[in-house]
Each structure stands twice: as C-alpha cells, then as structure tokens.
Amino acid sequence: LSHGAGGKATHNLIEAVFMEAFRNPLLEPLEDGATVNGLAFSTDSFVVTPLFFPGGNIGDLAVNGTVNDLAMCGARPRHLSAGFILEEGFPIADLRRITEAMATAAERAGVNIVTGDTKVVQRGKGDGCYINTTGIGVLDRDSTLSVSAAQPGDVVIVSGPIGEHGITIMLARGELDIEADLTSDTAPLSELTAPLLDACPHGRVRFLRDATRGGVATILNELAEASKVSVVLEENAIPVRTAVRGACELLGIDPLYVACEGRMVAVVAEPAADAALAALRSHPLGAEAAVIGRVGADPPGLVLLRTAFGGTRIVDVLVGDPLPRIC
Amino acid sequence: MRVRTGVRVEGVVQGVGFRPFVHGLATTLGLAGLVGNDAGGVFIEVEGEDDAVDRFLRGLRAPPPLAVIERITTRPLPAEGGGGFAIVGSDAGGRRSALVSFDSATCPACLRELRDPADRRHGYPFVNCTDCGPRFTIVTDVPYDRPNTTMAGFAMCADCAAEYHDPADRRFHAQPVCCPACGPRLVLRDREGRERAGDPIEEARGLLRRGGIVAVKGVGGYHLAATAADRAAVAALRARKHREDKPFAVMAPDLPSVRLLADLEPAEEALLTSAARPIVLLRRRAGAPLAEAVAPGNRSIGVLLPYTPLHHLLVSEPLVMTSGNVSDEPIAYRDEDALARLRDIADAFLTHDRPIHVRTDDSVVRVFQGRELPVRRSRGYVPRPLPVPVGGPAVLACGAELKNTFCLAEGGRAFVSHHIGDLENYETLRAFREGVGHFERLFGIAPAVLAHDLHPEYLSTKYAVERAEERELPLIGVQHHHAHIAACLADNEHAGPVIGVAFDGTGYGADGTLWGGEFLLADLTGFQRAGHLRPVPLPGGATAIREPWRMAAAYGVPATLDVARRNAATWDQVVAVGRAGLGAPPTSSVGRLFDAVAAVLGVRDRINYEGQAAVELEQCADPAEGSAYPVRLDDAGDGGPSFVVPGAELVQAVVDDLLAGTPVPAIAGRFHNAVGDLVVAAAVRLREATGLTTVALSGGVFQNLLLLKRAVTGLEAAGFAVLVHHRVPPNDGGISLGQAAVAIARAATEPAGPAPR
Ligand SMILES: [Fe+3]
Ligand SMILES: [Mg+2]
Ligand SMILES: [Zn+2]
Ligand SMILES: [Zn+2]
Predict the structure, then answer these.
(1) What is the 3-state secondary structure (H, E, C) of B192-232?
(2) Which of B87, B122, B155 is the C-terminal boundary of a domain?
(3) Which of B232, B299, B366, B729 could pair with B733 in a Cys bridge, judged by C-beta atoms 3.0 to 4.6 Å apart?
(4) Which of B37, B325, B404, B492 does the annotation list as catalytic?
C-alpha cells in the first residue's frame, strides 16, 4: 500500500515500471502534466475513503485535482473528461451528490466536463466509487515552470495553512472520536496561479506544485533533487491551523507530510517574492500565503528544517509508513 | 651464531615512541640494524648473536604506554655484517594498516614540566610527548606524520626540532611536539570574537569565579564551563543552553576533590585516572558541594579529571564541563562555528589555533560489578580496534539513527567510530558521511559489504542503500535487536548461540512492527524470536515517546488515576487513538513499559531528553526493596517454547499498589525487581527448551543498574553465564559493532548475494 503514499516507494514504482515502459521526452520531466503545442494535458484518478467529508466529496476532489495539475503547469484549465468506476449497488443518491459537486466545482474553475465513461464492477471489488479525470488547459503564457528550475536564493511560498485536507479525511473516517473544527481545503488553484503569474515578470516564478500526496515535504524533496539545490525551511514560518496542529500532535504526524487539495508551493526568484506574496494574498484562497523557506546551494538534494532552537533537522522523503526512529 | 631477522610489528605503534624504544632496546643488546615506520606499522631488521636477537624479540613485548601490539611476525634474512642501529625515514607506500592512537591524557612527565617554573614549557597549555597528547582528533591522513595532522601549520623551532629528531628524547617523533616559541597559542575572546587582554587562563578563571560561563576548546570540541557549586551560574547555563534536566558532567581538579563529590571504588578510580579520562558516572555523596541544577533528581553524578594541560591549568575547583552546543545539536568544534553558535551562551571563549579535525565527544562509562560498562564510547577509546573473527569481507556497518556510531571492519579488527549522534540533525549526518570517508582512508579499508538496520527511515539505512546502489555492493540488513545481542557477543568475543535479552526503546522488527522487549535465541548469523512483551499501541508514534503519560493511557490504566487527571485535556483522545490503532503502531518495547510506570507513579509525564522517565524511575526506586510483582510467561500458542509477556499485568500491579497507598519508591523498586525476575524466568524457560546456558543482555534499558543487577544476580544464581557489555555501550552506540559482527559471520557461512535492485 505504501506504493501510493507519495513517498519514495511511489517514486521507485514510477521509475521502475512506468518510465521503463513509456519513456519519452514529454513524460521524462515527471511534472504533474505534459505540455504539447500550447496545451497542457493531465490526468488523475481519485480514490478516497470516506467519499463524503467535511468541506467536500470525491467529486470536488476529482475536478479540483486535475484543474490544479493543469494550473501548476501554468495553464488555464478548459476541458475535463470524467470516468467513473462504480461498485454494483452504489446508491444513486450518493452519485448525484458527487456529480452535483463536480458540476459546481467545474463551474467555479471555468471548465467544462466534455466527455466521460462509466464502468460497474462487482460488489466488493471497489470502494463504492472511483473517478478518473483528464483535463486540457490552454498555455496563455509561454511557461518556464519546472521542478528543476529552482536556484539558490529563491524563496519558497505556500499559498495557505497546510494539512487540512489530509487531517479532515483522517478524522472523517470516524475511527477516532474526535471533533475538530476542520474542513478539507479542496479548491481550484487556477484562481491563484493566474494572478501570481501576472504579478511576476516572466521566468521569475520557477516552479508551482499542488501539495497533494506526501505533502509539502515530498514536493520540496523532489524539487531539491531535480534542481540540485537545498531547501531550508523555517519551522516557525510554516502556517498550520490550530486544529490541524492539535490533531497532528495527537496522532504524531508531521503536518509537512500531510496532503492538501487546495494548497500549492510556489518557488519564486527573490526579487519577485514581495509581488508574488501580495498577489496571492489579494485572493481569499491565498490570504494566509507565507514565505516558509529559501532555496540554497548546499547541501544539494536535501530539505532542512530550522527548528525553533536553531537546530537543523533533515526533512527526508518517507520510504513508507513513518515509524518512530527513536530507540 | 650471528643472525639477521626481519621483524614486523602491527598495532598502535606509530607516534607512541615505538621507534626510539626499539632503538634503545637494540642498542642496549648490542644489535645492529634499522627500524622504520610504514603504512603497515613498524618494520625492524636486527643483526647480532642469536640469543641477543631472542632477547630483543622478548623485549618488544613490553612497549611504551600508548603502544598496543597486535601482532609480531619475523622472517630470517641473510646477515649483512656491519654495526650501528639506524632509525630510517617513513615509507608511505603499501597497504595502510598502521593504527592511529587514541587521544591520551597528559602524562606525568609532561605534567611535571607544566608545573616546573624552570622548564621552557612551564604553564604552556599544549605540552605533550610520545606518551600523551592529541592523536585521533588531529590526524588528517596516514601515515601518522606531522604534515598529516592539524599541527602541519606550526613549524618547529630549533629546540623542538632537536627533541623531535633525537632518538634518546621523550619527544622523538612526537608529531604534536611544540613549545611557547613555535606552537599553538591560547587566547581568550569575548562574544564578538575580540581577543581580551591579560593572561587568558587567569582571566577565564576570574570569569568562572564571578559566575560566568566560558566556552573552552578541548581535544574533540568545545565545552561550556561554569563553577559547579555556583547555583546562579549553573542555572544560567541551563537556561541559555535550552537544556532543562539532562545532567551536566563535572570536571574535578584531582581525586581528593572527586571524593568530596562522590563515593569511589577502586575500579572507578582506575577509570577516572586512565589515559582515556572518560566521564565516570559515580554515586553522588550527600551534601556534595554542587548546585542542585548540575544533575537534578539524580543520585549519580558524571565526573571526569583534567585530560589536557589546558584543563590542568584552568580547573582548580569542580567545574561543570558540558558539551558546547545548544539543546541537542552536535558539539561545536570549528572555531568560527563555535563563536557563532555559542555566543549567546558563553561570556567568553578560551580557545586556540590548533584545529580539531574530528569532532569527538567525551566518553561516558560506569562501573558494574567491578568492570567497565560503557555508556558512550568516544574520546580516549576511538579508534582502538575491537577484535572480531578474522576472515570475511571488509564491512561498513552504518549503525542506528540515534547515538549513531558506524563500524569499519576487516581482517579481525573492528573500528567502531566515535559517537556521531542523532542523524536526523544535518550537522550530524554530515559528520557521519565525512567520518566514514575519514575512517576508510585512515585504516585503508574499502568496504565490500554494507550492513544496516532494517528501519527504512533511518538515515544510516538510506545511506547504506544509496551507497550500495552507487557502488553495486551487497547489503546486509540486520534486525535491530539481533544487532544489540550480536554487539554483546562481539564485545565478549563469544560466538553464541545464546539466549539474548534485548530491552530498549524501540527498534524495527523483522515483522515491520516496533520491537523492544525481545528474547532471542541468537548467534552471530541469525536469531529466532522466542519471546517478547505483548504489544501495546504507541499512541501518536514518536509523540508517545516524548510523552510517557500516553503509555499509561495505552496500557489502559483507570481514568481515575492522577496521571489521567493531569492529562485530562487529551486523555480520552489518546486512549481512542490507541484503541483505533490509527497513528498508534504496536510495540513490544520494555522502555515504553518503564515510561507507563513512571507516568502512573507521577515521576514524569513528558521528557526533555531520551530515556528520562526510565532514568528518573530508577533514581526514585528504593534499592533496598526486596519484593517483586509476580511475572508470567504466556504460551505463544505455537506448540514451542515461545512466549508472550503480559506487561499490562505489571502495570496493573503498580496501579493496585499505588491505590493501596504503598510509597512510590517501594513500588518503583518492586517493578524493577519484577522486570529483573522476568529476565530470569524467561531464560530458565528457554534453557529447558534449548539447553542453552549463556544469556546476553543488551539494549539501552540495561543501562539501568538496578535492573541489571537484579537480572544478573538472578541469572547467576540460576546457574547461567551472563554476558554484559564492557567495550561498547548496550545502547544504540553499540549497534554498528553488532551489525558488523553479523555481516562477517554471515559471509563466513554463505557467499554474499548479488547487489540488490
Ligand atoms: Fe536499540
Ligand atoms: Mg495530482
Ligand atoms: Zn607527555
Ligand atoms: Zn618549539
């Protein structure tokens, strides 16, 4: 199962199986989407338990997820396809709730769902409903965004408090009798990327990525490795809501590894940092955007966290499920 | 009959006065020939009457104090005639296996010079000779010659050069030889790094007397010093260092002053005054003139004696000598870095211009049953090799995550590294990587096999995997508790099989769960898990380790107890987390059982340093308590001797006793006794099933002397031979030796497999 958690196991799986089979120049950079002839193209499948949770359901996730992947390529999302795999006996009322959420999310993001497909699998062979969405977006700007574009001196920004989606889902599973004032952060990030890219001169925004599986930590590790740079985070600067912090403390989870569905990491050249931050903060989705760290030259490939006492902890990619390392 | 014999001497034989010793011995016996250093050690040719040559060879067996002879081999050579005995130059070629010495405390001869107003090195804080001084920490490369040390930048004056070149002199080829005219210079700097006027030693002593904190550059890094009897100074040091409770070590000027602080037995005296000069954990005397904050709530006190001339000049009353760092950072050892990191802690810096090449912490030891029991093996011990079976490939064992050491082993020698520390810290990881490279160069070992822990997230494991991929080397994963037992076996030069009892905090189990209360049937090649503590959830993972009260919740103690009331805000939630198993991996750890009991007894709910709850539980236990809670071994249900220990019953017994109004020290004592009895009961059961009569005790929990004593006494009374640690720590600092021993043993029984992936 750890092959889906977004850590090193996923990375190895992609390298060993998919890259091996499909290798081509467009796939090679392993970005969230491919860009071809002025278009961005991306696909994502959505598997979530529970299907309904505070702040949304699998339908919102399926639309926003692909919208966000397109937005992270610097594109304006336009068209989506939607594929459903339903378990026999899945309630129609639930499916309606899901499709209504999809319609609302699509409208908000300015995309049309233009084609689709439905398959039904035997009872017990699926968790109710899986959705795949594929999207096409228009590259209005000639984009230089890349996971290997970060340079020493760049600043690392998150668009808002982290970890809300992942913790919300965890608590919504109901295994813990914990009430928390939390909702998923699912949202279309295209609303933020457009003003951000407009506010910064060409090339000054180096890299954008929605912090989904594996959270901010995993993304920054990918960045550090691909760009051959270090990333140094300031523990005190990372925005985390009190409820998320509390739940993370209770469960012993580091919010840096928790998934978000409507937060992104932006790496911006230092001179454009103020403009970028202002652009993000001007929108309600980015009101709590913050600079959380900096890109450095040394040590290449590592993400470090400067703690409150001035210690420097390594924020590594997780190989599998995190187990304590303290003897 | 006249003969000529070629002699090769291997071991710690360079930079320890070995060639002048050989020269003197040969000359006394009227032998001709030569002696020289090469990368393999010392080579000698002696020629003369055969009985004189025999006497020479016997004489080699009583070398100078710092020399350690591992092997002497001889071969006949044709006689050449001629007379005279020459010391020839070093030969840097060939295979590197000459051993660098450990850093050694100032010898009596140098101390006399230091105190003699007529000596040219009177009051000079860097006096040293072939019998003493810095070695491992200043060596940058081999062969051990001055250009390959951090003394390379100091050109010898004529006087020093004369001593250095005179085979009859105590300083013949003493690489760090120097004097006030040509050697390093002591300075006192303020926080801004500006040199302060006046005599540095006098000024520093004045500052300390007035309650100041002085950063002192030692052999392996910076210390922070404060007057140990000065409450305000010690409190200020704690506050500025962000170190809340972890005991500070104290450097006392001499043995009589140690006796005012602690009760001493002969083995402890011997360790305090040994060339290694470790911190020795002693029984603190009532009314010892120490500020309470030196070692809060602790019956023991870590004491060490001065080990450099600088310390001898500086210390005239007990000083706290704690590592120069903030919180859990590694100690500072580079001057710039020390100034930057310690400027908010220290009022001044007593420092000098002889660089430290390898950061090396003070070693920490204690005495158990008259023998040394290491807690941290570092300065003064490293890089002395430990014996492992000869044969097998060169191994690099990458060690654990916390208290990391690594180990390079080849040809029957295991070089366990200095204490590296907690790898999660970037500075420490860098020290690990650089340290591995340094050791490989120093000892000329190119690892052919990489051994590592099974925990996939240990940075040492990741290093091993990465390096194995780069170099296409085979990996050998060694289960954490097997490594503990193997370390104990290697420590005692025992091959097993034994009944291994590994009690620690947590380690990655062969089944992917967290182990820590393990009874293994083990030899060096493998193990069988014959028994363990019944797993309980670890609610909140690592957070439960930092918050022992969570273990009380995990063990299901009543919500009416004080521990639940003290933590009422989240008690129910933590119980729920444990029950749901979400964010609550199961663990069979004995360390966590101690945590639960410590929390139930109100000893500690949250810790500020690793193992604190268990340490304080031991400290509060009544050592005179004789009774124990009953222990039970439940059949594991596999038809064999395997068993599971219901730890919850022990916790329940503690709760019952507490509710019955039994004093906490008595309860803590009974609990310790019960865990000790558990070890004996388990060993008896496994002896019946297997016939094994030797028990090896390892894991950090066995640093608990109360438990160790109960277990060892009980085992011996039951007729077992008991192995405990003497050379490497039972804690994770010993893991790398265990990994290396396992890798060597496995290579001997099966050829190493192909590189993974
Ligand atoms: Fe351990
Ligand atoms: Mg995605
Ligand atoms: Zn000396
Ligand atoms: Zn000199």
Answers:
(1) CCCECCCCHHHHHHHHHHCCCCEEEECCCCEEEEEECCCHH
(2) B87
(3) B729
(4) B37
Ligand nearest to the CA of B702: 1
Q: Is the pLDDT of residue B634 over 80?
A: yes
Residues B574 and B429 in one domain: no
Q: Are the CB atoms for B399 and B439 separated by under 8 Å? A: no
Q: Is residue B712 part of a domain?
A: yes
Domain boundaries, chain A: 31-138, 155-314
| B704 counts as catalytic | no
Residue recorded with tokens 């094994």:
B692
CATH of the domain at B44: 3.30.70.100
Q: Out of A173, A176, A314, name the one closest to residue B459 (CB).
A: A314
Class of A31-138 in CATH: alpha beta
Q: Which positions in chain A touch B401 (Cβ < 8 Å)?
A: 325-327
Under an 8 A CB cutoff, do A314 and B429 touch?
A: yes
The C-alpha of B479 sits at a distance from chain A's nearest C-alpha, in angstroms, of 13
Shared domain for B446 and B326, answered yes or no, is no
Per-residue confidence band for B277, with pLDDT thresholds at 50, 70 and 90: very high
pLDDT digits (tens, 9 = 90+) for B41-98: 899 999 999 999 999 999 999 998 888 888 899 999 998 888 888 887 666 555 555 6
B199/B338 same-domain check: yes
Assign A30 a pLDDT band (cuts: 50, 70, 90): low
Please report residues of A whose CB lies closer than 8 A to that of B427: 312
Distance A63 CA to ligand 2 centre (A): 11
- pLDDT tens digits, B362-373: 999 999 999 999
Ligand 2 centre from A237 Cα, in Å?
Answer: 25
End-to-end CA distance of chain A: 26
**Chain A residues within an 8 Å CB radius of B511:** none
Give the separation between CA B219 and CA B355, rounded to whole angstroms.
9
Q: In chain B, what residues touch A251 (CB-CB under 8 Å)?
A: 540-541, 543, 577, 582-583
Over residues B480-502, the mean pLDDT reads: 97
User: Which ligand sits closest to the CA of B181?
Assistant: 4
**Active-site residue among B19, B135, B284, B341?**
B19
Host domain of residue B608: 493-725
Token digits of residue A72: 């992270």
A190-199 vs A58-72: helix axis angle to the nearest 10?
20
User: Quick one: B202 and B332 in the same domain?
Assistant: yes
Nearest to B583 among A253, A318, A326 (CB): A253
% residues pLDDT > 90 (chain B) = 82
| CATH number for the domain harbouring residue B456 | 3.30.420.360
Does B524 share its domain with B608?
A: yes
Closest residue of chain B to A324, computed from CA coordinates: B542
The pocket of ion ligand 2, defined by CB under 5 A, consists of A 44, 69
Residue B757 has pLDDT above 70, yes or no: no
Integer angstrom CA distances of residue B34 from B7, B108, B143, B317: 10, 30, 19, 49
Homologous superfamily (CATH) of A155-314 is PurM-like C-terminal domain (3.90.650.10)
Please report, as a single letter, which amino acid is at residue A244. Answer: V
Q: Could you tell me the pLDDT band of residue B754, with boundaries at 50, 70 and 90?
A: very low
Q: Please, is B64 exposed, middle or buried when counting C-beta atoms within 10 Å of its C-beta (0-12, 13-18, 19+)?
A: middle
Q: What ipTM did this prediction achieve?
A: 0.87
